[in-house]
């Protein structure tokens, strides 16, 4: 059976552009061609089955002897990368998969010209979401879930989109655009309005104060930067500004440097710490005495352009307190989240365990637009320009009784985008803790017409030495997928930190916002002045920063030899960063980040001008391919190929 110009199933093999990608393909696997003249090398994988149930797993075929890279959820909230060459190495909750159709190094020109890259994108169909995983027989499997025991029927014809071609970046982009045309419900990153805050240096209050943040602390932080000649132009007031409390019967979950996940929202307005002359237990109803007084003060005194605040997608970690005075009309009800088996098999999470134990006050999905609009309109009236919306993946665990995870997530995200559009004119939203095929893909595939910025990895953990190289590698590889939908946000870092230059260099090539979370008085201004111009703007690259082609299938965190190279473009030049990420990674046995080599050795690699994949797109007409390289650290001009040592 031939599909399009290059995809077929023949003799139980999935053949892509003449290459066998999967063998022993099951008889109930269906291939449906993608419609449209420009989609000839794309098709949908589906299944024929009379099975019913809210969770079903279908083997497709065996993947053996071909290199792959995938992005999978290692915990409820976040993805990371995995490389391998057999189906059994594909983890649960894999949401993006790219396979190289032959062995061999990309350093050889002939390999680059003959390699075929096949992309697998699990998508949504009806009330079900699809995800990939492997089994012990090296089979690639499709896992379907609705998240509601009463939702059991599925069609099954369009579960995974498959596309192929000779340029991996073009294949991925074209695959996402093909799904965009198929679903007609989301927009590719290129069509979205990027918020202007991306172009300015910023400061986030989280690591500086955690939930102990106060209006006075915000003022002190901004004054501290100005003393060193650096002026942030945007601020994110993170968790700690809201009115929250724990139920009298609640079980506290207070970890070091974290929120109490048992707390619930008790009022949409700020707590006493952000009221003028505020006192605990008292509330000033005059709007001029509320959040607006600190926002007006810092914008005027420090020439801030933008102020964002944090909130969870359900209001707070524990949701909205049912029956709270002034919030009865949101009809919040106690709900107890249930995570999927795939998530349960990966890293445990204190935040989720606390929410599951204490329950979550879930706003009636019919009232969620009202909730967001009242919250955001109040914030906008106080001078707030946008929001960082966190804890988004919790919605996938709340689908029972609401028609499933897809339906409840769609309702919440459509309401969220409508409220953002109505209240924040610069498209002021950062999506966070949202890496799943309900929030990131559903958020991207069924409702993300506008949201343009998404946090691309787990947090910056200042006191976890294993986390720093993992962070940079995870963001880079996650961006291969996420960067098609939104501009990835590389998260904050500390300018005064043993790994500060490492993190700063990564942000410089990431095409992302650059912001830190320094405590007042703890800054490295020499480092910051390398990243921030005198007017507070940054030199932001044009695209999401991604690994170079020859890094796609190597493992820069675990193989002991590979350098991670990240490429990007400016208006008139290419830019590339080279990073030694060896020594630490997420362990699928220990189910956490671990250092496997405390002192990784020096590794050597090669940088070439053609590593910047789209360099010809910015070259002048008639360019003959000649290039000059400049090394930031070495301060020297180099020929088009040179060795690097890390």
UniProtKB/TrEMBL annotation:
InterPro entries: Aldolase_TIM, GH, Glycosyl_hydrolases_36. Keywords: Carbohydrate metabolism, Glycosyltransferase, Transferase. Its EC number is 2.4.1.82. It holds the Pfam family Raffinose_syn. GO terms for molecular function: galactinol-sucrose galactosyltransferase activity. PANTHER family: GALACTINOL--SUCROSE GALACTOSYLTRANSFERASE 1-RELATED, PTHR31268. This is galactinol--sucrose galactosyltransferase. It comes from Papaver somniferum (Opium poppy).
């Amino acid at each position: 059976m031939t599909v399009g110009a290059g995809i077929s199933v023949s003799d139980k093999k999935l053949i892509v552009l003449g290459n066998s990608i999967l063998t022993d393909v099951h008889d109930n696997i269906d291939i449906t061609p993608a419609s449209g003249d420009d989609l000839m090398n794309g098709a949908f994988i589906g299944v024929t089955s009379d099975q019913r149930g809210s969770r079903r797993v279908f083997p497709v075929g065996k993947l053996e002897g071909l290199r792959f890279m995938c992005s999978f959820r290692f915990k409820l909230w976040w993805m990371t990368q995995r490389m391998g060459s057999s189906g059994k190495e594909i983890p649960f909750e894999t949401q993006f998969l790219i396979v190289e159709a032959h062995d061999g190094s990309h350093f050889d020109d002939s390999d680059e010209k003959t390699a075929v890259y096949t992309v697998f994108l699990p998508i949504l169909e009806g009330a079900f979401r699809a995800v990939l995983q492997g089994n012990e027989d090296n089979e690639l499997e499709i896992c379907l879930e609705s998240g509601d025991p009463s939702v059991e029927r599925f069609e099954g014809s369009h579960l995974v989109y498959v596309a192929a071609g000779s340029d991996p970046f073009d294949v991925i982009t074209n695959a996402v655009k093909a799904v965009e045309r198929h679903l007609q419900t989301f927009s590719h990153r290129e069509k979205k309005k990027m918020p202007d805050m991306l172009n300015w240096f910023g400061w986030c209050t989280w690591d500086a104060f955690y939930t102990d943040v106060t209006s006075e602390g915000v003022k002190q932080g901004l004054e501290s930067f100005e003393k060193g000649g650096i002026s942030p132009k945007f601020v994110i007031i993170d968790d700690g500004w809201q009115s929250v409390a724990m139920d009298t019967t609640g079980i506290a979950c207070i970890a070091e440097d974290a929120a109490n996940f048992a707390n619930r929202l008790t009022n949409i307005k700020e707590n006493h710490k952000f009221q003028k002359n505020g006192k605990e237990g008292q509330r000033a109803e005059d709007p001029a005495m509320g959040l607006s007084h600190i926002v007006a003060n810092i914008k005027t005194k420090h020439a801030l352009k933008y102020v964002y605040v944090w909130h969870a997608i359900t209001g707070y970690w524990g949701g909205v307190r049912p029956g709270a005075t002034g919030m009865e009309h949101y009809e919040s009800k106690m709900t107890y989240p249930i995570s999927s088996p795939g998530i349960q098999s990966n890293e445990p999470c204190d935040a989720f365990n606390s929410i599951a134990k204490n329950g979550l006050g879930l706003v009636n999905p019919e009232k969620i637009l009202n909730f967001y609009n009242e919250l955001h309109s109040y914030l906008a009236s106080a001078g707030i320009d946008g929001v960082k919306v966190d804890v988004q993946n919790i919605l996938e665990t709340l689908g029972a009784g609401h028609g499933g995870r897809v339906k409840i997530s769609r309702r919440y995200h459509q309401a969220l985008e409508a409220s953002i559009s109505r209240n924040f004119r610069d498209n002021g939203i950062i999506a966070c803790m949202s890496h799943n095929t309900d929030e990131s893909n559903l958020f991207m595939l069924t409702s993300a017409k506008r949201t343009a910025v998404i946090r691309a990895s787990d947090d910056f953990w200042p006191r976890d030495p294993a986390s720093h190289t993992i962070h940079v590698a995870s963001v880079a590889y996650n961006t291969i997928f996420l960067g098609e939908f939104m501009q990835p946000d590389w998260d904050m870092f500390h300018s005064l930190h043993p790994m500060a230059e490492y993190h700063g260099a990564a942000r410089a090539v990431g095409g992302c916002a650059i912001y830190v979370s320094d405590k007042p008085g703890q800054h490295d201004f020499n480092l910051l002045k390398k990243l921030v111009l005198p007017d507070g703007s940054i030199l932001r690259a044009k695209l999401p920063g991604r690994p170079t082609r020859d890094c796609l299938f190597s493992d820069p965190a675990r193989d002991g030899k590979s350098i991670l190279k990240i490429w990007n473009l400016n208006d008139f030049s290419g830019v590339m960063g080279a990073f030694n990420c060896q020594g630490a990674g997420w362990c699928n046995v220990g189910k956490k980040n671990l250092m496997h080599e405390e002192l990784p050795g020096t590794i050597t690699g090669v940088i070439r001008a053609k590593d910047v994949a789209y360099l010809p797109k910015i070259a002048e007409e008639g360019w003959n391919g000649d290039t000059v390289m400049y090394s930031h650290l070495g301060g020297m001009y180099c020929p088009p190929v040179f060795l690097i040592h890390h």
